[in-house]
Amino acid sequence: xxxxxxxxxxxxxxxxxxxxxxxxxxxxxxxxxxxxxxxxxxxxxxxxxxxxxxxxxxxxxxxxxxxxxxxxxxxxxxxxxxxxxxxxxxxxxxxxxxxxxxxxxxxxxxxxxxxxxxxxxxxxxxxxxxxxxxxxxxxxxxxxxxxxxxxxxxxxxxxxxxxxxxxxxxxxxxxxxxxxxxxxxxxxxxxxxxxxxxxxxxxxxxxxxxxxxxxxxxxxxxxxxxxx
Length: 228
Ligand SMILES: *Cc1c(COP(=O)(O)O)cnc(C)c1O
Prior knowledge:
Number of helices: 8
Distance between the termini: 7 Å
CATH class: Alpha Beta
Strand order of the largest sheet: 7-6-5-4-3-2-1-8
Number of domains: 1
CATH topology: TIM Barrel
Bound molecules: pyridoxal-5'-phosphate
């Protein structure tokens, strides 16, 4: 399938999920996750009308950024090692994987202005997932106040790889309720307006539960170098 056709289908599903939940499709940002595919394929996504690209590794970000640059808003969605922060800053417009104080400290040090970050929460509690525990999320975000160059735009999570809709909903609802708790604190450094949740398999449910940023790889650009 070409990217434009995939995008149209995804937009249709977004409209449906928004209709189901009384939301406005304009409030949903599609991030095309291009980690599996070539720069050519990422350019196809841009040509099809995608304006946000996501990469989970520094190498992928640098490779594609060189050719696409400011034709896209860049999201770094993967685990970020502190030593790589200096290379990510200036390329990624948004970092979705802030999950520890040492990383916040490094982002703060390397940024010349407020860096837009999502705090990654390990809602499902799986060992394999990165992210801060739900119980620690509010206090972690409070403590980020000391870093002038950190702005908490929202919360991010990865749901487990399961099919059970109810279980997925529970994960997404939990993240939405954490956002409310953060917002109730009225922290100037943490407006926390957004929820980055939902991938190819679960974005419809995520939208029904409040997602504002969905990160879509395989269903949009494909999952192999060929883009298939
Ligand atoms: C790969 C990846 C995605 C996209 O996954 P798909 O299932 O292919 O849509 C989204 N978010 C993160 C953090 C990823 O690493």
